[in-house]
Amino acid sequence: MAQDETQALWREYKQKNDQATRDRLILTYAPLVKYVAGRLGSGLPAHVDENDLVSYGLLGLIGAIERFDPGRDIKFETYAIARIKGSIIDELRAMDWVPRSVRSRARDIERSIAELERKLHRAPTDEEIAEKLGMTTDELDDSLSEIGRSSIAALDELWTVSSSGGDQVALIDTIEDTQGPEPQSELAQTELKEALGDAIARLPEREKLVVTLYYYEELTLREIGEVLGVTESRVSQLHTKAILRLKARLAGSPAREPLGR
User: 196 pLDDT band (50/70/90 cuts)?
Assistant: First the structure.
């Protein structure tokens, strides 16, 4: 559908607020749901059906259409993708399919990273993290791989911006796009976005590169491995470690609380 037709459809929906027009908007933006479901589903176990993820995401799309204000200085696609992701993640968490042992291990690594960063005033090395946990670096790598296979949120997890009336922002939105305009200019100055952007900037270089290539350039883990000259499993470990570092740095801040967790 052409942009002019889409804008006309939005005007019609805001004037009539009827189900028929809403359904036409759902069909227009349905490919967004397929895209998000595919991205999230690529890292999930085989028994998680992508069609289920699409169904969960459609609920987020419908909510985004009903709540979106075309008058705001923000693209609908940006607004909707965050809510589609949030809807899928919420449903997956409600299923509680991640083994308790994996969640516990992730918390232990996250806690160890936080304690070491406070003590060392820098990002701890793999050897330091492993020693803190009482394991070898190989065992740490195995744990990161297992956590990575069970991870669903990563940088797509949403956080509440308490200072802005409960608006939401995804961690991915803090990665700077130096080539294009900022569609969420009203969020650019919030404490949350600054904190997240700083946390990403302070990641070790290889982890920061993985985060940027995966979320901003939208490369697959295999493609990133080719860029870095390492295996896909090693890229997955770097990605998981980056996420745990970010969570460790954000934990405990009074201005940031996970949504409904």
Answer: confident
